[in-house]
Amino acid sequence: MRTNRIRQRLIAGSLLLLASCAAAAFDFKTVGAHSAVLYDAPSAKGGKLFIAPSGMPVEVMLSYGDWVKVRDAAGDLAWTEARNLSARRNVIVRVAGAKVRAAPEDNAAVLMTADKNVLLELVDPEAGPWVRVRHRDGIGGYVRASDVWGI
Q1: Which among 119, 62, 41, 53 has a CA at the least distance from the CA of 84?
Q2: In the chain, is it the N or the C terminus that has fewer CB atoms within a 10 Å radius of its CB?
Q3: pTM higher than 0.90 for the full model?
């Protein structure tokens, strides 16, 4: 009888854990209009690690009060104040020579080629094999989702 209760609690706990993991889908944001200081702890008294430039995409890993723990494209983790982030979405090209095409097809016309680490605005956040992006010069099109980070 006691073993059944323990087993039921373990199963219920496992299901809650799985549900919370599924609900915690990737949450990407962008550093807002001003650069943001990234710290090693959720406090302005923590060690300053890096100055994140405006427009830099980050993945929100954890929220703690007014602070968020973020991961950058290199995989580094740091803390910043939540008010430093914007819901606007950008992505970073992670391959050399990513092709931005006129349509989401391999045979569509190439509108531009983006070098590694180029910042692109994410126009449509729907994830699929292709994502719709726009360069700051106004050129917009589709890039392979596997060629960018931040979606």
Answers
A1: 53
A2: N
A3: no
DSSP label of 45: T
Question: What is the H or E stretch that residue 15 is in?
Answer: helix 2-23
- Cα–Cα distances in angstroms (integers) from residue 65 to residues 33, 46, 81, 149, 150, in the given order: 22, 15, 9, 27, 24
Token pair of 75 as six digits: 């995989």
Exposure letters 1-10 (e unless 16+ CB within 10 A, then b): eeeeeeeeee
pLDDT in tens, 77-96: 999 999 999 999 999 999 99
Residue 129 has which token pair? Answer: 């094999």
For residue range 49-79, what is the model confidence (pLDDT) as tens digits? Answer: 999 999 999 999 999 999 999 999 999 999 9
Q: Please state the length of the chain.
A: 151
Task: Name residue, tokens 């087993």.
Answer: 7
